[in-house]
Design brief:
The structure is a homodimer. By secondary structure, the first copy, chain A, is an alpha/beta fold. Helices cover about 45% and strands about 15% of the residues of chain A.
Chain lengths: ~450, ~450
């Protein structure tokens, strides 16, 4: 028998095993050596046959581990990844619920301000001024890193929190979430480990699921993550990345202290950990907290932000500030996966932020939030719902429910009365926040929120 | 020795091998059985030690194939994936070049219309009308599938090309590229095989690189992909997905014939292949060509589009029409990786498309394109540059250069004169289009394009 014929014979044998489903998709094939022994052929003949089958796509070679039967089409359904969660604490369900809710629904669990609180006046002004802008602004793609004037503005603006980033170190994105997503695509492989705060913004969980990575939570203290636990997690899990909120932590309202910031960065240095610092709540701060990116000089910290929480959620625009070589690769990834950026959205954001009314608008928002924070605390107190800590600023109040009450059950009961809550375990990787809930004080101004809560609590006790 | 101590001993042994770099990142560890033999311990002790190390992240378990040393941080640099390409035919380099070019640069190689050709008047009108819109339009996130009124409009509009998609089968995205990217995330695993046309839109190559899949090209005929080669590629490579342009093919101007459409779909049916049909050039057509999605009824075909080529590239908005269950999973993926959509961009697109001026605008564009198509042909002819076929419509002319002339060399020479070309191999997976180039007739109205070409050709001969 000629060698070509022998190779074909091996290929036919494997193909028939696959067709007859003796070899199932995902199964490892016998090693080349074992197959050669079984078929009384040389190792090189079998290897050649395997490699030809791999070139055809019938089997897949994995470096250093052998050959596998190629699998069937298996679409990525995020709801099927990880443990099955109750709907009420499923990040995607909560997000869809909040995004879908019509005007009649009350949303104390929602993560943004009511539309009447947003910078509507500035948006209308920006639209009118854009209607008179030059042709390029109205019709062209943005440049690869994004609108130069907005990057220059952001570069100056970041200095207010001590973050030094040249305009060349800034890339605009379609949103804060897209910024983190691009960074994850850039730095992570499926199976890597990522640290998050426990509790943290729940969409981080959904996003990391889409990247098929392992997520480890580090408990949050009022001064930021617990440093000892953070160090232990580095030792135990060798994570690639830590994703956190700066300024006012979501959902807890914790504020990073300088000493915590310094210790985190020392630990990160010694473990070669990259940190993503999401700064979307910067403009809600009354006293600026330390930024990891400011201490680190954008060496291993990547700083991101967006304008959906302060200017308008209807405009999609975010940014990444990072090392220049990383920005260059991130631009390639952005073009490959989304092509040109939205010049119009960047022009609108620039117009809104440089409008003299924006500062006054945010001052008014901060005052209003402080007032609603007091109001919400006063209304929660009689229900036995107490704050984990009273935040210095921002819209979120992280609260403990009365003893023994399950937040998911309360959320379920409130939903029947058209009140959407955010129960604690949606934020907790370890599912250890079952008796907590996050209240958005700007979305808790209607008495019906507290009436529905009172009824749900009564029933639960 | 207690069992706990024995487990710790194995863990210490492996850790020290990793630290001393005896075991390198990515290396497969000795099998549990071999390790147990070598250390004279039970298989269960070694397995427990391996599993604890995997839980720590120091090593990684791969189903059915053993344990591997976890790798170092290795950021995804797209330029480092695949064969090293000359800059002139590197899709990312060409895209960045075209997006960056300032006003003085001529761009016959660019993939879109000059800004003066876009629907500027409609954009200004839409901006003025949006400036008077209600608060929600200006400040809120879009609903998870995207603005309902635009989805209803698109559902009716798709009927013009025979594509039946209810508004519930349509999801809005930030762009046509993001639409394809989400579909790839949904359907592909690294190592899968994807079919593309050879030649095809070059950003498909960059996008698929980011998904780390194998790309196989199928030659294009004037009636669509070569059916026999398509069938052979299905047999040989078991691809998951085929990504193609409908209407007027980019770069060739080929138009799918009904018989090719039918045969492709029969082949796809028998191989369980999913097809993505990118319909961004629909509004340039004079006589509508068959759509795969119309023949297939959105069963295995996913239909996508955007408005960057006709309304404005400054607005980011695209869509996906697909099976309802796929749309549902795609919405989850969109929220996880980008959160809410841009309501403002959708409102602008809706305003522009429903403006009575849009139809007249596109009529004028088609007439102007036909004229510039003739002009460009007349100017290329004396240079010995001949069309592969004269397209029925659209902006692209796929041309063969004079015998023996290398398009990449010509592109290099023209770039020195501030003329950006698109040489054939940027579009060709097999790099078999070295003597071709794509001309955008709308971007080839300046004499200097042809003067620079003439000088470059002279030098090359």
């Amino acid at each position: 028998m000629k060698n070509g014929t022998r190779i074909s014979a091996v290929m036919a044998e494997i193909r028939s095993a696959i067709t007859s489903r003796r070899y199932l998709p995902g199964m490892r094939l016998p090693s080349v050596r074992a197959q050669a022994r079984a078929m009384r052929l040389s190792v090189s003949t079998v290897l050649e046959a395997y490699e030809r089958l791999a070139a055809e796509g019938a089997i897949t070679s994995r470096r250093g581990s052998g050959f596998y039967v190629s699998g069937p089409l298996c679409p990525l359904a995020l709801t099927k990844i990880g443990p099955k969660l109750d709907r009420e604490v499923d990040p995607l369900w909560i997000s869809r619920q909040a995004l879908e809710a019509d005007a009649g629904v009350l949303r104390p669990g929602c993560g943004w301000l009511p539309s009447e609180w947003m910078y509507e006046k500035g948006m209308r002004r920006a639209l009118r001024s854009l209607a008179r802008a030059d042709t390029a602004a109205l019709t062209e793609y943005a440049t690869p890193p994004g609108l130069s004037a907005l990057r220059q503005f952001l570069s100056r603006r970041l200095l207010a929190t001590g973050v030094e980033a040249s305009p060349e170190q800034i890339m605009l994105t379609e949103s804060g979430t897209q910024a983190i997503d691009l960074i994850c695509r850039f730095l992570l492989e499926p199976g890597d480990t990522v640290l998050v705060d426990d509790p943290c913004y729940f969409n981080f969980h959904a996003l990391l699921k889409a990247h098929r990575v392992r997520v480890v939570g580090v408990p949050v203290t009022p001064n930021g993550p617990d440093v000892a636990m953070f160090g232990a997690a580095l030792q135990a899990h060798s994570p690639r990345l830590y994703i956190t909120n700066s300024a006012i932590h979501n959902p807890t309202g914790a504020v990073l202290s300088p000493v915590t910031a310094h210790r985190l960065l020392s630990l990160a240095d010694s473990s070669d950990l990259v940190i993503v610092e999401d700064d979307i709540f910067a403009d809600f701060e009354v006293h600026p907290a330390p930024r990891l990116a400011a201490f680190d000089g954008l060496s291993r910290v990547i700083h991101i932000g967006s304008f959906s929480k302060t200017v308008s959620a209807s405009l999609r625009c975010g940014y990444i500030a990072a090392r220049p070589d990383w920005i260059d690769s991130l631009i390639d990834l952005k073009i490959a996966t989304g092509f040109g950026g939205g010049r119009l959205a960047s022009e609108m954001v620039l117009a809104a932020l440089t409008d003299s009314g924006y500062r006054r608008h945010m001052e008014a928002v901060r005052v209003r939030l402080a007032r609603e924070m007091d109001n919400t605390l006063a209304r929660l107190e009689p229900l036995g719902i107490t704050p984990w800590r009273v935040p210095q600023a921002g819209m979120f109040l992280w609260c403990r429910l009365p003893d023994g009450v399950d937040a998911a059950a309360i959320a379920r009961a409130c939903l029947k009365e058209d009140v959407v809550l955010a129960p604690g375990n949606a934020f907790s990787q370890s599912l250890s926040a079952g008796s907590f809930a996050r209240f958005n004080v700007a979305q808790s101004t209607d008495n019906r929120v507290f009436e529905a809560l009172a009824r749900a609590l009564d029933k639960a006790r």
